[in-house]
Specification:
The protein is 38% helix and 22% strand. It has an 8-stranded antiparallel sheet. A 4-stranded mixed sheet has the order 2-1-5-4. A 4-stranded parallel sheet has the order 3-6-7-8. Helix 11 runs parallel beside helix 15, helix 16 runs antiparallel to helix 17 and helix 19 runs antiparallel to helix 20. It is globular and about 75 Å long. The model has no long low-confidence stretch (mean pLDDT 92). Bound molecules: adenosine monophosphate. Adenosine monophosphate binds next to strand 1, strand 9, strand 15 and strand 16. Keywords: Coiled coil, Ligase. It comes from Gossypium darwinii. InterPro entries: GH3, GH3_C, GH3_M.
């Protein structure tokens, strides 16, 4: 695990480390691959591809196939069931990580070693360093970071499996490192009941409101949920502060104990000022009003999280949103070296010492739509990707993944020294599909961005959205779910049918040629927009959390595949609208 000495080294010398890494991309990548082959070429999985025993970098690229999780799953299952992990990797597995991407409904299990954890830690620390350097004075105060955990599971072999966040928050390096700068006592983060945890974390954050200089979480979706929680609970939080007593329903021993050390006396003055702020009709800028010394909001806001950008800009009162890192259970990928970039310009610089990266070129058709990735196209090395091109990332790690397709599509937007910077474009397997039409996550998100613009001047905010392909009738149609609310208030907006239909039209118009021609030919019905009431998407999140997903790693699905999930959103429906039948 990263020792205090290593952490100190990164904080003291981090900028030089970054210069070195980004200047020597090709050399470091070659070394990383050599090291992986040196230790793992003899495993049952890899040795098949080196029949004459020569496992050099070139024969790796020629012989080892590019795979997905399903190809490696039999090995993972064998290890989870008790066989030695040396069938796949040489280093000892300390536990499995659970990924939110599912394989046949089950989270994927990804091996983690002490070494792979350290690499992640060093990327996290470098990213933290770069962000702090950007904001003077942010070193001094505290972070109000809303973090949550989920119970671990145990595989038949006795190896544990948990989400990375859960593992990380339980480590000594977290407890003795970053956690020291947090307002949340560690026991409130480690509480398994998310509601008690959220209440106590917000309460401690409010009690220390003048010291808070950073507000954040893992993903933007968690902060959207936090704001909703604050709307529902601010009165009770104020009451606790006023009386100096914690609510009766906080029964988790860790939380109770931690709160008894912080909530030590009645503080009516503080309660009054918080109450005054929260009673204000408009909650615009509520985050900076409650925590006046905040310098930035820190959470991932790219990819499927971009739907929360306007919400966070509104409640954050315009303070910078910093999207720090791009990583997954499989590997860390890149960090944001320009923390002040606007949300839609954020790029992540890949660090070449993290893993061995390859990139499958992804074609775009004349309309800019992503085409199939062909694995027989030559993958390109990290040092050889081209500016402006799209790629699917393929990763090889010391922890048992070899030429593994992560499923994310990225675009090269620039270089820091010799290291490419990528914008996250979309998840490859997230598509709405009817017949031969395939509408990707990127198509959808671009279309929705355009359509929601006509709601903004009316003071209506799209807080979150999803979709599904309704094929219960023929022809099928795409259905969008939008959660709408008035800016700064929780009231349901008055929905003008003409305007909502116009939103449907804008979405359909921005879809590609294939969609439009199918729609025109009658193979796809008019798009439907279902508006759901405020809070409905929280129920969807609760549903996925009850199925085992961690709040800290939850990503709202852009396209729903589960009937139960569609049912939950339908139950909050307050209006439905269609594109005109004869639009095309
Ligand atoms: P998980 O393995 O559950 O941590 O999920 C990893 C996935 O989350 C990645 O493969 C991406 O699709 C998504 N993700 C992680 N970081 C980012 C980011 N900075 N921007 C957009 N998507 C991200």
């Amino acid at each position: 695990m990263a020792s205090e000495k290593e952490i100190k080294e990164i904080y003291e010398n981090g900028m030089n480390i970054l210069e070195d890494l980004t200047n020597n991309v090709q050399e470091i990548q070659e070394q990383v691959l050599e090291e992986i082959l040196k230790s793992n070429a003899g495993t049952e999985y890899l040795s098949r591809f080196f029949p004459n025993g020569e496992a050099d970098n070139q024969s790796f690229k020629t012989n080892v196939p590019i795979i997905t999780y399903e190809d490696i799953k039999p090995y993972i299952d064998r290890i989870a069931n008790g066989e030695t992990s040396s069938i796949l990797l040489a280093y000892r597995i300390i536990q499995f990580l659970l990924s939110t991407g599912t394989s046949g409904g089950q989270p994927k299990l990804i091996p983690m070693t002490a070494e792979s954890f350290e690499k992640r830690m060093s990327d996290l620390l470098l990213s933290d360093l770069v962000t702090r350097k950007c904001f003077s004075g942010s070193d001094e105060g505290k972070s109000l970071y809303l973090y949550f955990i989920k119970p671990e599971m145990e595989t038949p072999s006795g190896l544990k499996a948990s989400f990375f966040t859960t593992f990380y928050f339980k480590t000594e390096s977290f407890k003795n490192g970053l956690a020291k700068f947090f307002t949340s006592p560690i026991d409130t983060i480690l509480c398994l009941d998310n509601k008690q945890s959220m209440f106590c974390q917000l309460l401690t954050g409010l009690l220390q409101r003048d010291e808070v200089v950073r507000f954040g979480s893992t993903f933007a979706s968690v902060l959207a949920r936090t704001i909703k929680f604050l709307e529902d609970y601010w009165r009770e939080l104020c009451c606790n502060i006023r009386t100096g007593y914690i609510s009766d329903w906080i029964i988790d021993p860790g939380c109770k104990n931690a709160m008894s050390l912080i909530l030590t006396r009645p503080n009516p003055e503080l309660a009054d000022s918080i109450q005054q702020i929260c009673e204000d009709k408009s909650w615009e800028g509520i985050i900076v009003k409650l925590w006046p010394n905040i310098k930035y909001i820190h959470c991932i806001i790219t990819g499927s999280m971009s739907q929360y950008v306007s919400l966070l800009e509104f409640y954050g009162g315009g303070i910078p949103l910093v999207s720090p890192i791009y990583n997954s259970s499989e590997s860390s990928f890149g960090i944001n070296l320009k923390p002040l970039s606007k949300p839609f310009d954020v790029s992540y610089t890949f660090l070449p010492n993290t893993a061995y990266f390859e990139f499958l070129p992804v074609g775009k058709d004349g309309e800019g739509k992503t085409q199939e990735t062909w694995t027989d196209d030559e993958p390109v090395d990290l040092a050889n990707v081209k500016l402006g091109r799209y790629y699917e990332v393929v990763v090889t790690t010391l922890a048992g993944l070899y030429r593994y397709r992560v499923g994310d599509v990225l675009k090269v937007t620039g270089f820091r020294n010799k290291s490419p910077q990528f914008q996250f474009v979309e998840r490859r397997n997230v598509v709405l599909s009817i017949d031969v039409d395939k509408t990707t996550e990127e198509d959808l998100s671009k279309a929705i961005m355009k359509a929601k613009l006509i709601l903004e001047p009316l003071g209506i905010m799209l807080t979150t959205c999803s979709s599904y392909a309704d094929t219960s009738l023929t022809p099928g149609r795409y259905v969008l779910f939008w959660e709408l609310k008035m800016k700064g208030r929780n009231d349901l907006p008055k929905l003008d049918a003409k305007i909502m239909e116009q939103c449907c039209c804008i979405v359909e118009e921005s879809f590609d040629f294939t969609y439009k021609s199918h729609r025109k030919g009658g193979a796809i019905s008019a798009l439907e927009l279902r508006v759901v009431k405020h809070g409905t998407f929280d129920e969807l999140m609760d549903f996925y959390v009850s199925k085992g997903v961690s709040v800290a790693q939850y990503k709202p699905p852009s396209c729903l595949k589960s009937e139960e999930a569609v049912k939950i959103l339908n139950s909050g429906m307050v209006g439905k609208f269609f594109s005109p039948k004869t639009m095309f």
